[in-house]
């Protein structure tokens, strides 16, 4: 399969914001954006792929010879009769197990090697001696962690345990059946620091191996800071970003409390690497610290930055830093603010900056209604997530701020959009760590497109992020390769990289492997070049 992609010089320039290109044997299909429906993302009936080579068949029970084998004579067992029918319907099929004790005639049959389950099911269903036939489905276990406080986490799995509405949650168990996170995925938390001694967080905190095994007082990894073992304190300009408030530790627990360890709670990601960037103390976030942290997080390789803070002050410096991070593929998740106001009319920054890589998050309660303190915005807020009385981690020892605010040590519940934002960051990390070929724009679009529409008119997506639907919406396949005919021995892994290296008049061919679902998933900008 070969397809040419061309920009016509002097006519129009092709600049696609979010492009999905699938290459299959049938040809090459392009779309200007992701577009999903719930029918695309939800598994009908809850069943996964059928068990290879097996059908459950319910045979007709009759005293006379079967219709399929009218010449069958002599006394025969039910199993023998069914074996004969199977042989007539599809040679090589055999009876494996019978379940007449529960459903008369119900039988598990084995299919010949290499037989299509769909084809075999069609044949048996058309047989006059069969009432119905279906694949031997394999249903998925809904993976639930054994953390003792997990049943209290209505935000992850709302069973009505807090007096709320069943199912008003992020669909975490269904998402965890698909993916639970990757240790190597980096997410930066720009907040009050994190308690690195918390046993539910320690294993999921980023540890800078190059610095730990490098030279003292030397920036061994070139990220701008020396001896930054867990991150950096941009308030005190030191390497120990200790949480002397509680807010950052709380946010970290939602994103990545170590799960299934028979301790505490479960984070959205069971495994992840969280980079601690201390940009705030009890008096709030310092602008210069936030700008420096965005730079630092990007240099460290973070793909997601969580900012559960904001205010009315517009900063060109911070906006520019966030935009620059976006150009390097970083998603910036920001809380919409608390005040029950419309951000369309009263903006809150950084959430309200007009940056494509920002996701602005409002908060919902356990009944899928807007949480009482949450801001909203039909045009400026993107999505919603749980943010009322949500349980998470807090510092092991009570701080002055905890005493003042009535927050308990080790674990506590908080309310606000600061709570909602890390849910989105966590789901984005799940999505991206499972499908690293996605761009920042695709991740944002998937999260918005697959959200449950429970807050219509209050945000752009009208909904609360659904982790399971987001994970199911990602296309599967192999990344293709691109050839520049001027250099036939050199293949590029993306269309954009081939364009960047090409000259006017070069011909590029995007090709896929025969018989595979090959795709190119990226932004494309011809940059004014005349390239067939």
* SS class: alpha/beta
CATH architecture annotation name of the largest domain: 3-Layer(aba) Sandwich
Uncertain regions: pLDDT < 50 for 5+ in a row?
1-51
The total beta strand count reads: 23
Radius of gyration: 28 Å
Determine the fraction of residues in helical runs and give it as a percent range: 10-25%
The CATH topology of the largest domain turns out to be: Rossmann fold
Would you identify the CATH H-level superfamily of the largest domain?
Peptidase S8/S53 domain
CATH class of the largest domain: Alpha Beta
For the biggest sheet, the summary is:
7 strands, parallel
* 3D shape: globular
Mean of residue pLDDT values = 86
What is the end-to-end distance? 16 Å
Number of helices: 13
The strand line-up of the biggest sheet is: 9-10-8-13-14-15-16
Structure, explained:
This protein has three domains: 81 residues, no CATH class; 93 residues, Peptidase S8 propeptide/proteinase inhibitor I9 (Alpha-Beta Plaits, 2-Layer Sandwich), CATH 3.30.70; 324 residues, Rossmann fold, CATH 3.40.50. With 532 residues, the chain is α/β, with parallel strands linked by helices. Helix 6 packs parallel to helix 10 and helix 7 packs parallel to helix 8. Strand 5 and strand 6 form a beta hairpin. The protein has 13 helices and 23 strands. A seven-stranded parallel β-sheet has the order 9-10-8-13-14-15-16, sandwiched between helices. It is globular, with a radius of gyration of 28 Å.
């Amino acid at each position: 399969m070969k397809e040419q992609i061309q920009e016509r010089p002097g006519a129009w320039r092709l600049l696609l914001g979010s492009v999905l290109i699938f290459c299959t044997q049938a040809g090459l299909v392009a779309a200007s954006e992701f577009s999903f429906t719930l029918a695309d993302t939800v598994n009908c009936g809850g069943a996964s792929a059928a068990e290879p080579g097996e059908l459950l068949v319910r045979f007709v029970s009759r005293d006379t010879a079967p219709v399929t084998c009218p010449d069958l004579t002599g006394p025969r067992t039910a199993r023998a009769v069914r074996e004969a029918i199977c042989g007539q319907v599809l040679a090589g099929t055999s009876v494996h197990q019978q379940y007449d004790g529960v459903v008369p005639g119900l039988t598990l049959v084995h299919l010949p090697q290499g037989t299509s389950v769909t084809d075999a099911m069609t044949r048996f269903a058309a047989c006059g001696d069969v009432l119905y036939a279906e694949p031997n489905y394999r249903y998925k276990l809904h993976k639930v962690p054994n953390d003792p406080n997990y049943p209290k986490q209505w935000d992850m799995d709302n069973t009505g345990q807090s007096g709320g509405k069943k199912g008003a949650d992020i669909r975490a168990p269904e998402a965890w059946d698909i993916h639970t996170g990757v240790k190597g995925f980096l997410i930066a938390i720009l907040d009050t620091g994190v308690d690195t001694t918390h046993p539910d967080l320690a294993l999921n905190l980023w540890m800078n191996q190059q610095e730990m095994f490098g030279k003292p007082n030397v920036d061994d990894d070139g990220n701008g800071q020396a001896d930054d073992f867990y991150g950096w304190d941009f308030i005190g300009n030191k390497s120990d970003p200790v949480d002397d408030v509680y807010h950052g530790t709380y946010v970290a627990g939602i994103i990545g409390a170590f799960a299934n360890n028979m301790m505490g709670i479960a984070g959205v990601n069971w495994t992840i690497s969280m980079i601690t960037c201390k940009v705030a103390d009890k008096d709030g976030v310092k602008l210069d610290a936030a700008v420096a942290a965005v730079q630092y997080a990007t240099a460290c390789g973070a793909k997601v930055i969580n900012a559960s803070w904001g205010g009315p002050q517009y900063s060109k410096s911070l906006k520019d830093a966030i935009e620059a991070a976006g150009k390097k593929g970083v998603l910036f998740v920001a809380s919409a603010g608390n005040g029950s106001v419309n951000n369309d009319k009263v903006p809150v920054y950084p959430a309200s900056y007009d940056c494509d890589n920002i996701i602005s998050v409002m908060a919902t309660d356990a009944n899928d209604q807007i949480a009482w303190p949450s801001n909203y915005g039909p045009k400026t807020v993107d999505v919603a997530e749980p943010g009322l009385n949500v349980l998470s981690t807090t510092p092991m020892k009570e701080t002055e701020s905890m005493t003042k605010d009535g927050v308990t040590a080790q674990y506590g519940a908080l309310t606000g959009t600061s709570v909602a934002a890390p849910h989105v960051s966590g789901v984005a990390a799940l999505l991206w760590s499972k499908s690293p070929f996605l761009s920042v724009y695709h991740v944002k679009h998937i999260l918005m497109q697959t959200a449950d529409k429970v807050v219509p008119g209050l945000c752009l997506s009208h909904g609360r992020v659904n982790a399971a639907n987001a994970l199911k919406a990602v296309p599967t396949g192999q990344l293709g390769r691109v050839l520049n005919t001027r250099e036939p021995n050199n293949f590029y892994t993306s269309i954009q990289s081939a364009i960047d290296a090409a000259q006017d008049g070069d011909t590029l061919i995007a090709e896929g492997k025969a018989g595979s679902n090959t795709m190119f998933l990226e932004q494309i900008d011809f940059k004014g070049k005349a390239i067939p």
